[in-house]
Amino acid sequence: MATLSSKPGLKHSVTDWDATNKLLSDIAEYRRKASHDICQEGRALRNETANKASWLESDSNRRLSDRIHDISHWKELLEFCVQEVDREMDALTLSKEAAERALASLTLPLEVTVDCLTMREGRRGSELVSDLVEAELKKEVRVIDEAQHALQQQIDQSFEELCLLQEARHQLTLDLQNKMEALDADMSCLSLTVTSSEISLKPQPTRIPHGSSTPQQWVQFSHHNVTRAQQEMQASQQLRENISTTRVQVQNELEAQRTVLQFALRKRTHNLEQAKDELQWQLKTTKDQIMDMEEDIRGLEDDLQAKMSPLKLSHTRLENRTKRPGMDLCWDEVQSGLVSEAKQLEGIIQSLCSKQSNLLHIDSGQTRPGHETGKDCVWPETSAGFYSCLAFGAA
Predict the structure, then answer these.
(1) Its pTM surpasses 0.70
(2) Alpha-carbon span 16 to 21, nearest angstrom
């Protein structure tokens, strides 16, 4: 007959076994509940973090889009401003070249005016006068000098303004280039997603780069560049208007001075022609008068020669009657008549000689010493003076 072996040890009761099983069941249920809560919390956290990450990415994309819009706006504004500066530089260059041509065109009128003054210095004698034409020529030289100075000054200002516009354009170009690079960088960032192959972890991604600016400084910098360019363009436009006004003013002043000078030249030419005609008339009249005087002189000479024969007859008779002898040499009526006749003839001849002498002196343009042209000469009543008168008349 077989026997049952028994192991030594403590045996639990059914109650203990049930309690142990219930404890294990409770512990398992508690662990399952705790695990379920943790899983629910994990799911909730996953959903929350996923939503938050999605919102953060969406918000970053929105900010990137807004930033791209701002950069694009300033980029378009800078491009438009650069184009405006280029057009203004071209317009100012054309105005500068027009001013240079106007300045060069003043060289010939100045040379002509100076040549006119030089030629007028060659006038001789009493014709070398300081007249209205000379004054107007000198005034024209002053007007041309002032015009050249004004044009040259505006040409220099145009060159300086072109340099300022070029500097402003350079700043705009640099700012525009920076905007284009920043726009490319932000658009590249906007195109990245969580599935992009270019993404990776970077060291110290939240660091602030050296030289970073604030949004206010960024806007102020571009606004300053645009404002400066606009101010330079306004200054250039004003300068172009001044150049155009100066060119028109110079042209009007030169035209007005040319008109005044031509009037002075015509007036002076008219005066010279009048003086020339007057002198020619005086010369012709004087020649005619000289011919008349010469005719009168010849007439006086003929009359003088005609009076010599009666005088010789009277002198001969008187001389022959002095040969009467004795008492027959008396002062009778015949003798007194012959003496009266001789004296009257001598007076006639003397007056003829005096008039002839005056005519000769007037004709030669000279006066005899001690006598004035046009006045009767006073001849001595001596025989020597009388015969010298006859000799002068005969000559």
Answers:
(1) no
(2) 8
341 in helix, strand or coil? helix
* Coil, strand or helix at 196: coil
> What confidence tens digit (pLDDT) does each residue in 51-108 have?
998 898 899 999 999 999 999 999 999 999 999 999 999 999 999 999 999 999 999 9
Q: How many residues does the chain have?
A: 395
Q: Convert 240-291 into a string of H (helix), E (strand) and C (coil).
A: HHHHHHHHHHHHHHHHHHHHHHHHHHHHHHHHHHHHHHHHHHHHHHHHHHHH
Contact 377, 358 (CB under 8 A): yes
Residue 86's nearest CA partner among 171, 166, 206, 202 is 166
Report the distance separating Cα 225 and Cα 165, nearest Å.
11
How far apart are the C-alpha atoms of 343 and 305, rounded to whole Å? 17
- Judge contact between 243 and 102, C-beta under 8 A: no
Element (H, E) at 193: none
Among 308, 328, 273, which residue's Cα sits nearest to residue 386?
308
Distance (Å, whole) CA 299 – CA 294? 8
Q: What b/e readout covers 157-188, taking b as 16+ CB neighbours within 10 angstroms?
A: bbeebbeebeebbebbeebbebbeebbeebee
Q: Measured between alpha carbons, how far apart are the two ends of the chain, in Å?
A: 226
258-295 burial, b at 16+ Cβ within 10 Å, e below that, comes to: eeebeebeeebeeeeeeeeeeeeeeeeeeeeeeeeeee
Q: Give CA–CA dist 326/320, Å, rounded.
A: 14
List, in sequence order, the alpha helices (H) in 365-395: 383-394
CATH topology (fold) of 42-122+130-190+218-286: Ferritin (1.20.1260)
Chain centroid offset of residue 233 CA: 22
- In tens, the pLDDT along 299-335 reads 878 887 887 888 888 888 888 888 888 777 788 888 8
Percent of the chain with pLDDT over 90: 52
